[in-house]
Amino acid sequence: MTKTVLISGAGIAGLTTAYWLHRHGFTPTVVERAADVRDGGYKIDIRGAALTVLERMGVLDAIRARKTDIRSGSVVDARGRRVAAMDGDTFGGRVHGDAEILRGDLARILYDLTKDEVEYRFEDSIADLTDADDGVKVTFAGGAVQSFDLVIGADGLHSATRTLTFGPGFEHDLGYRVAVYSTPNTLDLDREELTYVGPGRTALTYNTTGDDEAKAMFLFASTADTRDPGAAQRVLAEAYAGEGWAVPQLLAAMPEAPDFYCDSLSQVHLDTWSRGRVCLVGDAAHAASAASGQGTSLALVGAYVLAGELATANGDVSGFHAYEHELREFVAQNQKLGPANVKRMVLRSQAQVRMSMAMLGLLNRLPGKDKLMAKVVESIHRAATAIDLKTY
């Protein structure tokens, strides 16, 4: 069985799909509009079934070797006083061996695993595609035209493959924006994370192992159009104007940041993830939003299942339907986490902020506080393990 498969997107979902398809005897090609795999980026968590996928790929030890190694996390008030503090894993909601790594580090590990076996076409993208009985005719932005047996869209929340196949829409804005960028480590953090909570907006900064700088991250209630970076920076500055703690310093570093990123917290809901010979995986199919903490894990598990079911079906499109049947409930449980989590992460009123700070202050003085906090994140662990992975 040799089936040619075009994968759009060299993110976590695309790289993992390419690896497993090659393992199963397919001939994958990955097209990516960027010039290379994106390094750096924000920190991400890998949980539950996704750890099993990485273990079966033989890279779990490499993942753990590149862990962020954040040792502690604290919530601070407007004057910078630590209201509550705990160890880094508890603060980040990591239990049962969960791993935290920079997104770019994970992407680089997966790319290095596949670069000698998979064709990568950087600085190009799909401009058009036509699904026919004998394959999918793809027109690339660079002008080339080529046919593939199958096409897989792994191109993220704003998937062009999804739009070309299903039409526009399907992104459901949760009413929040997230921004992240590198900033000088003016707070002298050493593998530490600090979080400040205001009404309708949360700000945090952290430093990871081996990084001389820090990352600033902002999560705030907004429905503003932030697709243009300049507009996004204005929206962010206005949202946090007058806030205390180190927020003014973090905002002052924003214009010079080389890696400024801002987007909506949105989910993707589709009645089906495939049409004909075209299928979606990862955020393109079922984005759960960054607030779920499960986007990377969903991408890893989804890619594994998609490739495995295609192999079981000998490359027939019935494998797409089997993949969806296998994954739907797992996705549904993880998508539920997004709206629930963001309401805890961004408090709507000053009264809610005061009450939350008082409760955290009380919790901070209780014995066994880390165990109490671990119970809070058990819902995430249940969702992360809500699938029995087949061995394909």
Supply the key terms:
single chain, 392 residues, alpha/beta, FAD/NAD(P)-binding domain, D-Amino Acid Oxidase, Chain A, domain 2, six-stranded mixed β-sheet, 15 helices
Description:
The protein is α/β, with parallel strands linked by helices and 392 residues long. The protein has helices spanning 12-23, 49-57, 60-65, 88-91, 103-114, 160-166, 229-239, 247-252, 283-286, 295-312, 318-335, 337-345, 350-365, 369-376, 378-384, and strands at residues 4-8, 27-32, 43-46, 72-76, 82-87, 99-102, 119-122, 126-132, 135-140, 145-148, 150-153, 171-183, 192-198, 201-206, 214-221, 261-268, 274-275, 278-280. It has a seven-stranded mixed β-sheet with strand order 5-4-13-14-15-12-16, sandwiched between helices. Strand 13 (192-198) and strand 14 (201-206) form a beta hairpin. Helix 1 (12-23) packs parallel to helix 10 (295-312), helix 2 crosses helix 10 and helix 10 runs antiparallel to helix 11 (318-335). The model has no long low-confidence stretch (mean pLDDT 91).
